[in-house]
Amino acid sequence: MEPLTTFRRGRYTFDVDDSGGTGTLVVLLHGFPQSRSMWHGLTPALTAAGYRVVAPDQRGYSPGASPLARRDYTLTTLADDVIGLVDAVGTDRFHVVGHDWGGAVAWQLGAAHADRVLSANVMSTPHPRAMIKSLVTSTQLLKSWYMLAFQPPWLAERFLASPFGQNRLRTDLAATGMAPDQVEESLRLLASPSGRTMLNWYRALPLSPGGGPGKVTVPTLYLYGAKDFALGRKAAEGTAEFVTGPYRFEILENAGHWMIDTDQGEVTASILDHLASIQP
Q: Burial level of 163, CB count in 10 A (0-12/13-18/19+)?
């Protein structure tokens, strides 16, 4: 099959990397504040194993798919974007791998589109309902202070695009393990027009019905870094309550939030092993 460079959903055009080929489809979903370039280390291993790999710049990150209204960034809408991508590829079922906010979309896909999803593979992000539950049963609310700081319009994007904000973020991202090239890519995005629409993922949180997706019935792998600065262990351990399908929960004791950079070999091995265990 001819590789895609973009795909359209309604009036929006999304940028995408596509390895091409006829293998079982794997969709890679980046998180905040990154782009599809975060997957450059994982993609070759997946293609070498025979998979077709597509990695989009998601809504708010692709210049041609960046609506300004926060209502356009609910998890339902974001998951529907992925279904639109899979339809554009021309296949029915697929594996999804997501990190950070991409992980939240993977949870939504596993709950709402179980007829399409072969497996959900989530890095860092707990199930959204486990996350909400942990806000009142752990220190997660303190870890999530930035989500509240991102709510007022204009303030956060101006700070993150300012010289002071850029220098502060460069220091913080590097200190928590993000690879240098990814730090600079994240800073570029936040200083660009995407800096505002990327934050709409956070600003749409109050609009998610019922606190997020329901229980996930598809085979699921959840990789959690024990040194994650943003997401606490309570929510990670509580995620099992919201998965009724076959479930693997793996704690990477030496990994933090940016595990694809710091523990790429271990992450890649776990994902490949999980994908290989699923019959298309």
A: exposed
3-state helix, strand, coil in the chain (%, to 5): 45, 15, 35
The one-digit pLDDT tens for each residue of the chain (280 residues) are: 689 999 999 999 999 999 999 999 999 999 999 999 999 999 999 999 999 999 999 999 999 999 999 999 999 999 999 999 999 999 999 999 999 999 999 999 999 999 999 999 999 999 999 988 887 667 776 676 677 778 888 889 899 999 999 999 999 999 999 999 999 999 999 999 998 899 999 999 888 766 679 999 999 999 999 999 989 999 999 999 999 999 999 999 999 999 999 999 999 999 999 999 998 7
How far apart (Å, rounded) are the C-alpha atoms in residues 162 and 158? 6
Report the SS3 class of residue 95.
strand
Task: Compute how many other C-beta atoms are within 10 angstroms of the C-beta atom of residue 172.
Answer: 12
Name the fold adopted by 6-142+208-276: Rossmann fold (3.40.50)
**33: preceding bond cis by omega (within 30 degrees):** yes
Q: In terms of C-beta density within 10 A (0-12 exposed, 13-18 middle, 19 or more buried), how is residue 131 classed?
A: buried
As a whole number of Å, the end-to-end CA separation of the chain is 18
How is the chain split into domains, by residue range?
A: 6-142+208-276
